[in-house]
Amino acid sequence: MTEHRPPHPRIPAALISLGLALIGCPGPRQPGPVSPTRVTHTVVPAPVSIRANQGEPFRLDSMTSIVTTNVAEVARTGQMLAALLRPATGFPIPVITDTTRPGAIALRLNTSATGEAYELSVTRDSIRISGTASGIFRGVQTLRQLMPPSIESDMRVNGPWVVPAVTIVDQPRFAWRGSMLDVARHFFTVDEVKQFIDLLALYKLNVLHLHLADDQGWRIEIKSRPRLAELGGVTQVGGGPGGFYTQAEYADIVRYAQERYIAIVPEIDMPGHTNAALVAHPELSCSRVPPALYTRTEVGWSAFCPNKEETYALIDDVIRELAALTPGRYIHIGGDEVEVLTHEDYIKFVERVQDIVVRHGKEVVGWEEIGKARLRPTTLAQLWKSDSAVLALRSGAKLIMSPAPKAYLDMKYTPTTELGLTWAAIIEVSDVYNWDPATYQAGVTESNIVGVEGPIWSETLRNITAVQYLAVPRLPALAEVGWTPQSARAWDDFRVRIAAHAPRWNYLGVNYYRSPQVPW
Ligand code: TNX
Predict the structure, then answer these.
(1) Do 489 and 479 meet the contact criterion of CB atoms below 8 Å apart?
(2) How far apart are CA 321 and CA 268, in angstroms?
(3) Tens digits of per-residue pLDDT, 77-97?
């Protein structure tokens, strides 16, 4: 996607402030002790800097308009904001390009801004959001959270629609802030995936990693290999009907995410977790014996045969079609939990598939086990169990931090939580919040990390309501880990802010866990 910038090199916040100071801008204020302008707010993730302006707040009324530049991307964000504001307020909220109109919400590109940075300033007379195109979209989410939760209502409700007079200067700590949805163990419809994307957008996440193939199901149409989805997509955990996305449906998901500045990272897990593919193509297993469909949840037992050219011919077809469907830079090749191949065969496989992905113009993400192979410096390894991620650093590859005891959002909240698993940990909201990706793993520093991701494996999750229950409020907590400077984060502050989001989730129809740690 156009605004999904390369994750590195990243510029430390301090250097950006210094740069802004040199060109005469105040730059982000350092978070610090109570100042006279300190503002209480409920924005999640907490912005880098927020201070109160003199004077009255802004009030939306029947005259409020949205003024955008005529850059199509910004105009589209303006239309999305208008669509959000109209139902609850009942105001017409025209979207126009007339810059002289008073009482307006103005969205402006700032050509010197980078990444997802934005500034938001509110006075009695206007609201201005400026930044990159993606930054403006992020700033709109902040504006949304500065308004009463009832702004999310799809029926007209009473205001007043007051926005406090503040100035916010904001940008993310990490370039990669994601979640993963496992659509293989249980299948989720296009509409359910879009609902999940809406949740990511509200909390300024910018990556949705889709786990598209596993033992139980193959979920994406591959036109040159139609058997994969037709035979491999027919069931799921527990034996339900499963399903798959046609390429047109998948492209619709990608476009929906792109409009929200979220990159879809497609994962085809291999060489293990491949039973569904082998049902369709038994010639790719070393034994050639056609396997049965699988609907239970053990892992580690299936594998593509790494010594057959047919294996790489199929992978080439799959990656070529996926690359054509992927505007983002990355394709995820899995690589986890292979218990039936030799070390040498595993390494050879990963290196060959890495070359295939690069030949199709994309870069590789893999679970941390791929660190055992020779990686390209542009490859990303996803830490989950901390046993081989540091090996990936030998080649200059960087890490996505998804340590299971902190970031696995498919774990139970408490031993009695009905949904979820327990193998990695029991994970309350504060556990997700209280860690620093830059100090979590010995041998890994901030410069080795592109960001954080919260995987949601779906062995126990049969619909999006169940996914939401495990994701909320832990995904907003992880979003703050990824966005907000470490020095500006505090659990006691977060728990109060996130409590105020419950009415918003109720209006949005989002299921959530009422953690006893949060003062609802
Ligand atoms: C481990 S995490 C897996 C998945 C399971 C998950 C359940 C990883 C790379 N592999 O196959 O679904 O645990 O929490």
Answers:
(1) no
(2) 12
(3) 999 999 999 999 999 999 999
Q: Which residues are known to be catalytic?
A: 337
Angle at 171 between CA 167 and CA 175, to 5 degrees: 165
The ligand 1 atom at the shortest distance from the C-alpha of residue 402 is: 2
Which of 187, 291, 296 shows the shortest CA–CA distance to 237? Answer: 296
Query: Which homologous superfamily is 13-170 in?
Result: Chitobiase/beta-hexosaminidase domain 2-like (3.30.379.10)
Say if residue 26's pLDDT is above 90: no
Ligand 1 atom nearest residue 455's Cα = 2
Atom 11, ligand 1: which residue's CA is nearest?
299
Kindly list the domain boundaries of the chain, sorted by start residue. 13-170, 176-484
For 165-208, write each residue's pLDDT tens digit. 999 999 999 999 999 999 999 999 999 999 999 999 999 999 99
pLDDT of residue 23: 30
> Which residues are within 8 A (CB) of 266 and not within 5 positions of it... i.e. 6 or more apart?
210, 212, 220, 322, 325, 326, 331, 332
- CA–CA separation, 485 and 464 (whole Å): 31
Q: Identify the CA nearest to 196 among candidates 511, 483, 519, 514.
A: 511
CATH topology of domain 176-484: TIM Barrel (3.20.20)
Are domains 13-170 and 176-484 of this chain identical in fold? no
Alpha helix ranges (H) inside 90-189 = 133-146
Report the residue count for the chain.
Answer: 520
Cα–ligand 1 centroid distance for 301 (angstroms): 13
- What spacing in Å lies between the alpha carbon of 125 and ligand 1's midpoint? 52
